[in-house]
Amino acid sequence: MHQTFDAALGINLLHVNQTGADSNRAHFDEWGITCLNIMSSPGAGKTVLLEQTLQALSSEIKIAVIEGDMTTELDADRLRKYNVPVIAINTGRSCHLDSRMVAGGIHQLEHQYNPTDFDLVLVENVGNLVCPAEFEVGEHLKVALLSITEGEDKPLKYPIMFQQADCLLITKIDLVPYLEIDINRIEENVRQMNPHVKIIAISAKTGAGLEAWLDWVKSQVVATPLVGKSK
Amino acid sequence: MHETDMTKALILTVKDWQESQKENPQIACIHLIVGKFTCVEPVGLQFAFEVQTKNTFLEGVKLVIEETPLIAFCHSCKTEYHPEIGIQYACPQCKSPMDDIRSGRELKIDRVEYLDNYAPNF
After folding, report:
1. Which residues of B touch A192 (CB under 8 A)?
2. A166, A47 contact by CB (below 8 A)
3. φ/ψ (deg, to 5) at B102
4. Is A133 on the interface with B (CB under 8 A)?
5. Dihedrals φ, ψ of A111, to 5°?
6. Which ipTM score applies to this complex?
7. pLDDT below 70 — which residues of chain A?
8. pLDDT for B22
9. CA A157, CA A41: separation in Å to the nearest integer?
10. What b/e sequence results for A130-142 when a residue is b if at least 16 CB atoms lie within 10 Å of its CB, and e otherwise?
């Protein structure tokens, strides 16, 4: 007769992804790169934010983009106009980037460019408020976007994303006059689960809030230790 | 469907464990702990596990998922409370933000039950 035994494992379900993320981050640290993981639901304005960020900062900060998109290179093509390396990762039917996919992007960065030349890597995640929050890719900081057309309740309904974010951009605020939305309520909803988050209200159309966002990005780039950089 | 990816990781982890054991133990049951404050749906995990283990060494193995509640600690009131997911996360007493999560973020393969394949002659 067989006897039943118990073996304690105590292993995190995501430990494979986490190990990969730690390894990615170690590469970034070695090269003196700050990595931001940019996440939101589809259509909140990630790509236009990147366009404006590249336009404003690419002359003073050396930036590369890792672009996750389910099937196309449409977003990547939009960003290539700014003459920065844009590494497109087709995630297939997967609903988020994981650390292995981003490692593929880092591999390209390492072999096609000199990685120590770069200061900042912007990872545009797949549009989704659920999964990307649980899958670290090796970022130093998480940026979440919430457009005001999505409603004040979304932070309550998708709490992990907003609880994990280091910076929240409330986007499309030029639409405030046309909507019944209370931006303070959005902020309150986020702060009750994430009191330390940096919140910036922004409009890509009018440029409102853009300076504050760019200042935040620049302050994060300076804040990261430049381990492998000789400057 | 990130539950699919998580299940893949689960199967690989259990396989690694099994291969690291001398007697190639036959696994009977896997116990997971999944917090309520994660992006993981236990029903999705069960379904993915059933589908992905068909015709593998884990076919028919039971997956038991224990869910842990979201519990936060309020440092102003010096007390634990249960935030209501989707409704209210701040402390119900003093409205301080949820800043110290004590339970609910677990995503863990807790333990496996196995049968020893070494069958002695009685």
Report:
1. 88-90, 95, 97-98
2. no
3. -100, -20
4. yes
5. -95, -20
6. 0.84
7. 1-2, 223-231
8. 84
9. 13
10. bbbbbbbbbbbbb
Which residues on B lie below 8 Å from A151 (Cβ)? Answer: none
Name every chain A residue with its beta carbon within 8 A of the beta carbon of B10.
13
Q: Compute the C-alpha angle A143/A149/A154, nearest 5°.
A: 60
**Separation between Cα atoms, residue A191 and residue A56, nearest integer Å:** 29
Determine the number of helices (DSSP H) and then strands (DSSP E) in chain B. 2, 6
pLDDT of residue A223: 63
Q: Determine contact, residues B110/A10, Cβ cutoff 8 Å.
A: yes
What's the pLDDT score for residue A3?
80
Determine contact, residues B32/B45, Cβ cutoff 8 Å: yes
Q: How many CB atoms lie within 10 A of CB B64?
A: 13
What tokens does B41 get? 């749906």
Residue A131 confidence (pLDDT): 87
Q: What are phi and psi of A80, to 5 degrees?
A: -65, -20
For A77-86, the pLDDT digits (tens) are: 889 999 999 9
Residues in chain A: 231
Residue among B25, B26, B90 whose CB faces A192 most closely: B90
